[in-house]
Specification:
79 residues; alpha+beta; Glutaredoxin; 3 helices
Amino acid sequence: MKNVKVLGSGCSNCKTTSALIEQVATEMNCQVIIEKVQDMAEIISYGVMSTPAVLIDDVIVHAGGVPEKENIKQWLLTG
């Protein structure tokens, strides 16, 4: 099971990113726990300056903009 954190203010791109990760995980039959982090102090504590950002098992894999589906697949396969 992968722990996924989506960091962002809750904007439309953040919501789209969360939904896309959930969709890809379902398509791949991959179990994920998605946590949405909206607290700016916590987001900054990860060293992220551009959102939405994605962490897989506490490793930053993406920052800024909505990720591509193919990238999400790779993250879920490899972490």
